[in-house]
Amino acid sequence: MSLSDAPLLRALAGDRPDRTPVWFMRQAGRSLPEYRELRVGTRMLDACLTPDLAAEITLQPVRRHGVDAGIFFSDIVVPLRLAGVEVEIEPGRGPVFAEPIRTAADVERITSIDPESLDASAVAEAVRIVVSELGETPLIGFAGAPFTLAAYLVEGGPSKEHMRARALMHTDPESWHRLAGWLAQVSRVFLQAQIDAGASAVQLFDSWAGSLSRADYLEFVAPHSTAALRDVTAPIIHFGVGTGPFLADMRLGGIADAVGVDWRMPLTEAISVLGPDVTVQGNINPALLSAPWPVLEAHVRDVLAQGRGARAHIVNLGHGVPPETDPEQLTRIVELVHSI
Amino acid sequence: MSLSDAPLLRALAGDRPDRTPVWFMRQAGRSLPEYRELRVGTRMLDACLTPDLAAEITLQPVRRHGVDAGIFFSDIVVPLRLAGVEVEIEPGRGPVFAEPIRTAADVERITSIDPESLDASAVAEAVRIVVSELGETPLIGFAGAPFTLAAYLVEGGPSKEHMRARALMHTDPESWHRLAGWLAQVSRVFLQAQIDAGASAVQLFDSWAGSLSRADYLEFVAPHSTAALRDVTAPIIHFGVGTGPFLADMRLGGIADAVGVDWRMPLTEAISVLGPDVTVQGNINPALLSAPWPVLEAHVRDVLAQGRGARAHIVNLGHGVPPETDPEQLTRIVELVHSI
């Protein structure tokens, strides 16, 4: 088998490969003991930017679970750090920025950085190591979408409802569009660097888009997510949480080859909303990873059955692997999906 | 004017009073300097359970903003504390339980407490003080819905996605139903105590229900929320965040006189989903409270215009008042709504 025949890439192209591809958001990281061991004494962003380490962390779950893709181990704020923005990941809290971006002057300052100047060499090196090890298994590149990045930047850190970013759209739309437009270019440069180094596909994560109304999503967000992906030279997966009310809009006018569905919306409903010409990804309920295997198995079989209504289906969770997950459960899911 | 002619109560009955009623979730509390002054040196749950203090905090925003209802100042965990469960509110974090309820044995232990034994005398006393001060302005009683209470209890504190409660439903449905059934009785007893002391209506808050699929909501949550409200002897408002995908189910088979709508779904869409025989409440985008007045004013006028499609409309926010809100903005909204 060659890389281009890989089930994930065939599914993204709209084919139905013999084996249904499966991978897990956050498969690399917190749920694996070998990851926790490797990370001792290393700060999150340092781990992301140390090529050997980022490569090894990316490879761990592929070896352990036999998933159909690696997902590049990174953090949503890595491209901002590479662009020179001062940010740190605080354990148990998340990304914290030295200077939140709240005023027109803040926006002007940060957007004066040229996105093309972003030095992604450490990331490219890590990707090259991963790709040479993975062989015929594809690597998925990773970036945060402009809204989700802005939600952190405007707030200055994690927040429950991303109120400040949602406010900026309406109080100063010009600054909002300038900031989101710049973030789109940062994401695009970061994704393309991963593709140029060998990633076979990319996923854009808009984790917090579900805090928006559809109207705000369409006016203030979708154009920038589209810009982040427009010239990217690999198949695209677009994922958000709680985006059921505007799931069809997550196709971004057809730019997305696959749309990720969270655990809230049944795949049959998602497929009818998305239409026949896009691949669906999802949507095992992460809460069920702690359930006894027969309960989880029945659920996975149901997700698979529902996915048959799509042109193609990539099995995944409806959101990331919870940190306390028993990795054995993930391996069992992969075996089950591959056995059907 | 007598209390029974109050715009809020007429709107709940399906009439269109001359003045559109308006109040704000979390109007009592963090956004008011007079509240912050009053609270210095008093822990949250002590404030809730000191009748004079809880009454004064409830009254502050009615005096300041001229809203059409008081909302009883309390916390979602107050009835649990009154039932003897060990819980404290940690400033900046939220409710934290000494012993999370995770196993069948935990559930058996907590549900052995008789909900009827809950001593609500301090709450009843506070309600009586408020009601005598409010005169013809109605007081809305307050309680958390069984799922939202369970989300805190099972986790042991606040959580982003309420994974443990969502898991318990599937891993041990019997324990789940036992726990949620017990919480429903706790909420019912707490609401009825407020009504018996003079509250004119009640609102059940299911703040976290939006983390559920519709199927899980219908099977594991709706029956218990219905039980919490079934014998309650006052008009009912039912509110959840992110419940757009099952908004019609929030009517609980017609038990709810009004359904609250969050900021994500336009009221016109909510009204068409809910049907003609229920009052709608909402749904000013809280993020716009920090916008310049002309931006906020246009938005409030739009919400009012959309609300005209319902049998009756109670103006509110789509979620609680953010702590950093300038109270002047709230007063301006009340004046605007009353002037139209």
From TrEMBL, chains A, B:
Site (Transition state stabilizer): D75
Stored CDD domains: URO-D (cd00717)
Annotated InterPro entries: UROD/MetE-like_sf (IPR038071), Uroporphyrinogen_deCO2ase_HemE (IPR006361), Uroporphyrinogen_deCOase (IPR000257)
Cellular compartments per GO CC: cytosol
Pfam families: URO-D
GO terms of molecular function: uroporphyrinogen decarboxylase activity
Keyword terms: Cytoplasm, Decarboxylase, Lyase, Porphyrin biosynthesis
Pathway: Porphyrin-containing compound metabolism; protoporphyrin-IX biosynthesis; coproporphyrinogen-III from 5-aminolevulinate: step 4/4
Compartment annotation: Cytoplasm
EC number: 4.1.1.37
Broad class of enzyme this protein falls into: lyase
Residues noted as binding substrate in the record, renumbered to the chain: R26, Q27, A28, G29, R30, D75, Y152, S207, H319
Entries under Gene3D superfamilies matching the protein: 3.20.20.210
GO biological process: protoporphyrinogen IX biosynthetic process
Reaction it catalyzes: uroporphyrinogen III + 4 H(+) = coproporphyrinogen III + 4 CO2
Primary site of residence: cytoplasm
Domain Uroporphyrinogen decarboxylase (URO-D): 21-30, 140-156
Subunit (UniProt): Homodimer.
Function text: Catalyzes the decarboxylation of four acetate groups of uroporphyrinogen-III to yield coproporphyrinogen-III.
Family membership: Belongs to the uroporphyrinogen decarboxylase family.
Descriptive protein name: Uroporphyrinogen decarboxylase
Originating organism: Microbacterium keratanolyticum
